[in-house]
Amino acid sequence: MFKIIKWLLMSLLVVALLATGLIYGALNLSLPALDGKGTSTAIEQSVKIERDVLGQAVIHAQSRLDAAYALGFAHGQDRFFQMDLLRRNAAGELSELFGKAALELDKTMRFHQLRKRSQILLEQLPSSDRALLATYAKGVNEGHAQTGFDSFEYLLTAATAKPWQSEDSLLTIFSMYLDLQTATFERDKTLIQIEQLFGKEMVAFITQPSLYQAALDNSQLAPYNHSIPSLSAPLSMITHIEDTKELGSNNWAVTGDLTQTGAGMLSDDMHLSFAVPIIWYRAQLNYPLNGQMQQITGVSLPGAPAIVVGTNNKVAWGFTNGYLDTADWIALDGRDKTWQIDEAILLNDGSSENYTLTMSEYGPVKNINGKPYALSWVAHHDYAVNMDLIKLEQANNVDDALALAADVGIPVQNLMVVDDSGSAAWKNMGAIPARKVPNELAVSEQNYPVGWHENETERPYVKNPASGRLWTGNSRVVSAEDNKRFGNGAYAMGARSAQIRDRLFEKQQFTESDFYQLQHDNEARFLTKWHNLLVKQLESRPNEYKASLTELNNWQACACADSIGYTLVKYYRDEVINGLFSPLENELQTYDGSLKHVKRDLEPAVWQLINTQPKGWLNPDYADWSEQMRAAFDRALDKLTTQYGQNMQNWQWGSVNKLVIEHPFAKQIPILKKLLNMPAAPGFGDTFMPAVQGRSFGASQRFIVQPGHLDKAIMAIPGGQSGHPLSEFYRAGFDDYVNEGLTPLMPQSIMHSITIDAVN
Predict the structure, then answer these.
(1) Whole-number Cα distances in Å, 637 to 139, 182, 562, 631
(2) Whose CA, among 75, 206, 365, 367, lies 20 to 30 Å from 502?
(3) Is 757 strand, coil or helix?
(4) What are residue 414's phi and psi, to 5 degrees?
């Protein structure tokens, strides 16, 4: 028997080694060649694609069209599978790769019909833009083909890579709409459900203005001054209310009056979910225009031929999610204006599953609590997507950039822009419906505004404020008056923006290092109020909570890696919210709803409840509010013990909030985990502070720049350029990111070079 077991073990070892050898062999065969020469019929003149020590693509071309080809070639070499996932996700076509596991996600995406919309929009684009996308697509396909062997992801899924098409680049932009604006219409849907189940008074209570406001004009929304609505639903059980990721970003700027050089200075860090490879791709484009050489350096989105955030050394620009109200649900009063769409969702085994969608003249239809509503969302309209973002490359000053804001077809963003002469400005850039009255609740068919079909051209902006300082962090930026026009599309509460604003007024002059330090500011200003509340509650029973009080007294008031106290406060706040709002959450879940989409709105309502202590909101299991509040902390301790064990040293925030950036296939193939994932790193921030970081979420890039002075410009990214795990550039730059290194924006030593000659 022992011999048989030994033989089996040896056989398994041999098989494992052979499998590993095959995987590594396939990986080696799919490595792109980064040196050499080639030819193409897609370009007019020769292009050169260089890679520096970080793998940054440095492109030299004789026209913007040829530069698009070269950027596409680099994207196709380094990121094709990532691009494939982006287009498939937006189009609802992931099931063709992953089978039934992706079916429900595909159905969710098919609701928006983005493949069809991309095809229609492509035909409506100017001929110059269609040519740009076609040339970029040829570059992608020729770069991908150059590898000679599909990446291991296709080997594992037994799928064949499909060529890139022009419409796929539009789907890539739509994928950002899905990431950045889904919260807007999901929030409205939740509020409609709350109105139906609990009344308008509960909606007003939950959506009362934030306790933290940081608009650029310092205007304040009127505080909530109504009574607390009563609870009709009894508490049956305490339910965890999920958090939604604070998708958005930070950016700020100062005018030249506050820099040593006299140039404006910009900081931008976009907060997104993390995966391997990271979403952004470093690139520099060099090409002549009107007799002058252009040099644009920044990050691109693989799948699109533009530099999304960057600088041309005259101006620099960055974005945060605008969170204006860009969606309305239309209450349908009959079925006479609807029709049905049936389409097949292809599966990986060659079969298909039928998907049925009800459409209306206002948009796709969904039942909310059993009643039909149509979604009118800006992404469903013709002005949602175009190629005008590329025009930012040609801006000579802040005014040029501001003039483009209403024309650019992207999800509405807070554009922050500075120039080399010292100007700084903010304006909303991207698609905004021209309807004049936003709605958080349902709109009747009779009141559907025709302005939905047009893009808003009149937008507020701020240029060179007297203070010399500008800031945004996904909370309300516009004035209280303009808020009536543009609405709340799931704003962040403002604590992060307020902390940034306050930091900017602590100094009278700034350098790139100052801005980088602010990007990493993890002071827990927002949670200090919660910390004080918790300590007060526990001090009534000091012996029972001795260990917790010790850690709370030593919490350092920061989301620091070694802080146990911070973890305690964080979990306590969450349990207080769960305990107070579970009656609503439980009722909503019976209708396939949840408070998670309005959880960021609950902070002022929570404090009103804590300060007022209404009997109707007291859990009948507890004698009084003090007991109820301590019970929330007990639940927090129970959760931490279950998740991390009884040893409180394991509750350090750096461990609880550890940065883990995974490849999509790492969980399915644990043997390749170390090869595919980025190294885990201690957590160094949290949600409600400038240093935003979750376990697989945070600043997807850190960009700091003064136009005209790029020698000290910074661009740090939490991952490498290449999506290939055996590439020298798979993790290049990651250590700098987690160790707060000042990674240069500009290309460094050139390591590789490809020249592609034109064949005409």
Answers:
(1) 55, 33, 18, 10
(2) 206
(3) strand
(4) -85, 100
Highest mean pLDDT among 9-18, 108-117, 665-674: 108-117
Domain ranges of the chain: 2-39+48-177, 527-557+560-644
pLDDT at 5 over 60: no
The DSSP secondary structure of 394-419, one letter per residue, reads: G--SHHHHHHHTTT--SB-EEEEEEE
Inter-CA distances, 721 with 53, 460, 550, 605, 714, Å: 10, 37, 44, 44, 16
Report in angstroms the alpha-carbon separations of 571 from 146, 169, 238.
Answer: 51, 41, 15
Question: What is the amino acid identity at position 654?
Answer: G
Rounded Cα–Cα distance for residues 656 and 654 (Å): 6
C-alpha span between 464 and 419 (Å, rounded): 11
Cα separation, 267 vs 249, in Å, equals 11
Nearest to 742 by CA among 513, 509, 522: 513
Question: pTM of this prediction?
Answer: 0.94
CA triple 227-536-643, angle to 5 deg = 95
Looking at domain 2-39+48-177, which of 3.40.50.12780, 2.40.300.10, 1.20.1260.10, 1.10.439.10 is its CATH number?
Answer: 1.10.439.10
User: Is the pLDDT score of 13 beyond 50?
Assistant: no
Among left, alpha and beta (phi > 0; psi -120 to 50; other), residue 297 is beta
Write down the H helix ranges in 336-432: 398-404
The identity of residue 597, as a single letter, is: H
* Residues 653-686: tens digit of each pLDDT: 999 999 999 999 988 888 889 999 999 999 889 9
Measured distance CA(742)–CA(744) in Å, rounded? 6
The pair phi, psi for residue 757, each rounded to 5°, is: -90, 145
